[in-house]
Specification:
By secondary structure, the protein is mostly helical. The protein is built from twelve helices and two strands, in the order αααβααααβααααα.
């Protein structure tokens, strides 16, 4: 009980989002009536779907899709990595900073999936775009660490993780390549603006103007993706 209480005090956002993803998956199983989760259930619960987003303006799907998973293994992999990365980032950056980083990376990753979708019948689900945003943030923190230590070590591990995932993605079908790549970019661009906590100010270098530049680039990224979607689908 003490451990749960300590985890809640240190990383309430990480714990809340983790529990939320698990509960959503349980709801998927209940609605499916078994372990086989149908596309119809995923669409009903908010999966990313181009016709629903473009024709019916259900843009909220860009966020809700990040909390849905295809099966238990898909959920387990995302939740384990998210929980580990979320805890260390939340303790370093702050609660709302971790939430902003994860949710922004999910949305930008799903925007990219929509923008470069190869087949309109394809739906998108999973938190991996958000997870890759957290990975990018850790790599940035390792680069900005004043005295090379914990964060630089974590950054090296994350670079290896990204390299292995690139190889895995190349040979695996039905992977959201664009969600991974642009979620990663979005997290890396937003990270400089999140170094506001006392710990962050003491631990990381914060070049003047980097925070504002990061926010501007985040805005341009979303604008560019939105514009391409508008042009590609002939206005919406």
């Amino acid at each position: 009980m003490k451990t749960v209480k300590q985890n809640w005090q240190l990383a309430p956002v990480t714990l809340t989002l983790t529990i939320g993803m698990v509960l959503v998956f349980v709801m998927q199983l209940v609605l499916s009536g078994g372990l086989a989760i149908s596309q119809a259930i995923l669409l009903k619960m908010g999966a990313q779907d181009a016709p629903d987003i473009i024709l019916h303006h259900e843009w909220w799907r860009l966020l809700t899709a990040g909390f849905l998973h295809a099966n238990g293994m898909h959920l387990l992999l995302n939740v384990l990595v998210f929980y580990y990365l979320g805890r260390i980032l939340e303790s370093a950056l702050g609660h709302w900073q971790l939430a902003a980083l994860f949710l922004f990376s999910i949305v930008t990753g799903n925007l990219a999936e929509l923008a470069f979708l190869s087949r309109l019948g394809t739906i998108g689900i999973g938190a991996s775009g958000g997870v890759f945003g957290l990975i990018a943030a850790i790599i940035y923190l390792g680069w900005m660490e004043k005295r090379p230590g914990f964060w630089q070590g974590q950054a090296k591990t994350m670079l290896l993780f990204v390299a292995l995932n690139v190889l895995f993605d190349i040979f695996t079908p039905n992977i959201g390549h664009w969600a991974h790549a642009v979620g990663f970019i979005g997290g890396g661009l937003l990270a400089p603006a999140l170094l506001q906590s006392t710990y962050a100010k003491q631990t990381f270098r914060r070049p003047r103007g980097r925070s504002s530049l990061g926010l501007v680039l985040c805005g341009l990224l979303v604008f560019a993706l939105g514009l391409w979607i508008y042009v590609r689908f002939g206005g919406y």
